Amino acid sequence: MPIPEIVARLESRYGVPEWNPRNNPLEELIHCILSQHTSDANSFRAYRLLRERYPTWQAVVDAPTDELAETIRSGGLANQKAPRIQAVLRAIHQAHGDYTLDWLHTLPTPDAKQFLLSLPGIGPKCAAIVLCFAMGRPVIPVDTHVFRVSWRLGLIPKSIGEAKAHDALEAIVPEPLVYRFHVALIRHGRAVCKAQNPRCEACCLQDLCAFYSQPTQAKHA
Ligand code: SF4
């Protein structure tokens, strides 16, 4: 499957993204926890409120958990996310004596990923987001859009699920294209290859798409 061709066609439609880290690795990780099962708007609001109320990560750890949950309520699932954030911060402090993940920059990508996955409640998606967005490593965060567009194109089988899709996509996407592939598929998933009723008639990938070439009955099976 011509990954460079897919990226080129999507970028001619949506533009070429520029990698700019918006957060340091620890900030990205905490924001990722807050972003689980909610919208970007809600998670950014919850993150802003958390940082406004607690001036340091130590203050977040020391806060009563129900107070922290109240602070991040707008991000959803606050009663699960508050203790998870505190547990992750404690584990990071225990591992390195400080509230920072900047030292991950010195590790090879597999070792950095292994440490992130060892943290309580951190799965492949959050690990990949930290590695890709905050550190510029060639690791693909697989969200619902990346997963859906990938299996529809026939790059991966739908049956493997989002968690295993990380490794499956990393095996076939050339390293220099990882970030651009991720962004291009998200943009395409939002604009054209929507979850319900993909707009195949407006898609620039029709001739490359396994889903499009299926008989109608098979698409709805
Ligand atoms: S042809 Fe349809 S299913 Fe295939 S990538 Fe385009 S919008 Fe998605």
Number of domains: 2
Oligomer: single chain
What is the level 1 CATH name of the largest domain? Mainly Alpha
Structural class of the helices, strands and pairings? mainly alpha
Shape: elongated
Identify every distinct bound molecule in the structure, by name, code or SMILES: iron/sulfur cluster
Share of β-strand residues: under 5%
* Major pleated sheet: none
Name the CATH superfamily assignment of the largest domain: Hypothetical protein, domain 2
Rg (CA only): 19 Å
Mean pLDDT: 93
Which blocks of ≥5 consecutive residues have pLDDT under 50? none
- Element order, helices and strands? HHHHHHHHHHHHH
Number of DSSP helices?
A: 13
In words, what does this structure look like?
The structure is a single chain. By secondary structure, the chain is an all-alpha fold. It has two domains: 93 residues, Helix-hairpin-Helix base-excision DNA repair enzymes (C-terminal) (Endonuclease Iii, domain 2, Orthogonal Bundle); 110 residues, Hypothetical protein, domain 2 (Endonuclease III, domain 1). α5 crosses α6. The longest helix has 19 residues. The site of iron/sulfur cluster has 14 residues, from α9 and α12.
